[in-house]
Amino acid sequence: MSIEKYYRYYTAVCDCCGARLPGEERWEDARRAKQAAGWESRKVDGEWEDVCPDCLFEEKGYDNDENNRQTR
Questions:
Q1: How far apart, in whole angstroms, are the C-alpha atoms of residue 20 and residue 66?
Q2: Is 34 within 8 Å of 6 (Cβ atoms)?
Q3: How does strand 40-44 pair with strand 47-51?
Q4: How confident is the model at residue 1 (pLDDT cuts 50, 70, 90)?
Q5: What is the pLDDT of residues 11-70, one digit of tens each?
Q6: pLDDT for position 61
Q7: What is the pLDDT of residue 59?
Q8: Which residues does 8 contact at the CB level (< 8 Å), separation at least 6?
Q9: What is the pLDDT of residue 2?
Q10: What span, in angstroms and rounded, lies between the C-alpha atoms of 34 and 41?
Q11: Is residue 69 part of a domain?
């Protein structure tokens, strides 16, 4: 499960790298925070996984230096 409960807070956790968003008191708020932060939810082999923007960027074959260059 990609939104985990720690004590009374729900926290989105990236299934690739383990990055976490700040905890929310309600599951629905954690889901909204995940969407607002640009995370992607997808179903892989029948299981849902959440992926943070950094991992999505790496999956597309880019590195951080390329992101800062202008293409001409």
A1: 25
A2: no
A3: antiparallel
A4: low
A5: 999 999 999 999 999 999 999 999 999 999 999 899 889 999 999 998 887 655 554 444
A6: 77
A7: 83
A8: 25
A9: 84
A10: 9
A11: no
Query: Do the domain assignments include residue 71?
Result: no
- Whole-angstrom distance, CA of residue 37 vs CA of residue 8: 21
> Residue 72 falls within a domain, yes or no?
no
Specify the number of domains making up the chain.
1
Range of the structural domain that residue 56 is part of: 3-64
First to last CA, the chain: 42
CA distance 46 to 41: 12
Return the structure tokens found at 57.
């960027």
Place of tokens 């202008």: 70
C-alpha 12 chain-centroid distance:
7
Biggest alpha carbon–alpha carbon distance for the chain: 50
